[in-house]
Amino acid sequence: MVEVCPVIFIFDGFAALGDEALSRFEFKWGRNKVAMAGGLAHFYNHSDTPNIELVRDRTDRVIRVYTLRRVYVGEELQHKYMAKPWWKTE
Fold first, then answer.
1. Which of 49, 54, 59, 60 sits between 20 and 30 A of 90, alpha carbons compared?
2. What is the pLDDT along the chain (90 residues), one digit of tens a residue?
């Protein structure tokens, strides 16, 4: 385990509130709500070959971050975004 990130629920989401920039950092949390995570959850970059996984713990209402393999000193921690990236990938 890398870290446990507490979450704050935002029921309508930032996009619904008119803040498109912040909506890029929402984590879907069930059917009608989204969450903003504390800790470093928003700083992990995307990779199609991730070395960490972000797991939503609905009971404890946190996001747990786990390594998927051995991670070496100096290696960037990356996860696979669940949502489609908003930038162009090639």
1. 54
2. 999 999 988 766 555 555 555 666 778 787 777 788 899 998 999 999 999 999 999 899 999 999 999 999 999 999 998 755 555 555
Q: What is the pTM of this model?
A: 0.76
Residues 6+ apart with CB under 8 A from 25: 14, 36, 42
CA 10 to chain centre: 15
Nearest Cα to 90, choosing from 48, 45, 42?
Answer: 48
Q: Where are the alpha helices (DSSP H) in the chain?
A: 13-16, 20-23
